Amino acid sequence: MKVENYFLRYAFPCAFIINEMNEVDKETVEMLEKAAIEQKVLDRELLEKIFFRAFEKIQVLADEMGKDKWDYDVMKTYFRERHNQDIDNGVGYYKTAPKAIKELSKVFEAEIVDKRDGFFIVQYNGKTRTVSDLFVSNAKKGDKVTIHYGFAVEAL
Amino acid sequence: MCLAYPGKIVKIDGDMATIDYDTEKRSAKMIDKFNVGDYVIVQGKIVIQKVPKKDAEEFIKMVKHEG
Lengths: 156, 67
Prior knowledge:
The complex is a heterodimer. By secondary structure, chain A is of the alpha+beta class. Helix content of chain A is 47%, strand content 21%. Chain A has two domains: 3-99, no CATH class; 106-155, SH3 type barrels (Roll). Chain A contains seven helices and five strands; from the N terminus they run H-H-H-H-H-H-H-E-E-E-E-E. In chain A, strands 3-2-1-4-5 form a five-stranded antiparallel β-sheet. In chain A, strand 2 (119-124) and strand 3 form a beta hairpin. In chain A, helix 4 crosses helix 5 and helix 5 crosses helix 6 (72-88). Chain B is globular. In chain B, a hairpin with a 2-residue loop joins strand 4 (39-43) and strand 5 (46-51). Chain B is of the alpha+beta class. Classes of the chains: A alpha+beta, B alpha+beta. Chain A binds chain B through residues 12-17, 20-23, 29-30, 33, 93, 96-101, 104, 116, 118-119, 121, 129-132, 134, 149-151, and chain B through 1-6, 31-32, 41-49, 51-52, 54-56, 58-59, 62-64, 66-67.
């Protein structure tokens, strides 16, 4: 998977929120969703412009790691570690976001306990959630995946 | 359409819910039991989670305020 796709898989659920903030239009949200599903590689500059909040933080992490912000390790560390820390620390918009939304925004490692038509039932930290199998449709019961909002994002 | 944003269930028909997002209405399949009036998050055309009313209203207000 190209790093642009990796970024978009994690980032695109937030597009709907920035649409509500009137920063992007509906057509852009639909374009982002389609690109995420079809694994289309989007222009880096465009992604950086739309998700400027995320990239401000990714840049800080990249500087700390001494790597480019589009480096795979940087992206992976951002979504698998730093993003949750930022939410816990109430950085930016997470300062006032309600608990239930913050929980959905975090990335967790979860185990698939049931597989049904189009979705998985997963468990993490003693909690159960329903997530779409769109990105990891080959995963089976017992497999571990990361979850973000309503999606299983990557198989572990 | 992925809706990482809470909407309110306004109608239930079998396992299908109609969810109101202020600017539009969309339908999604329910796996668990939900009620009319619940605020929920929908993704991949599935209602994935209920969001407490207070949290949902606070969040909607916060997002609209940012816009």
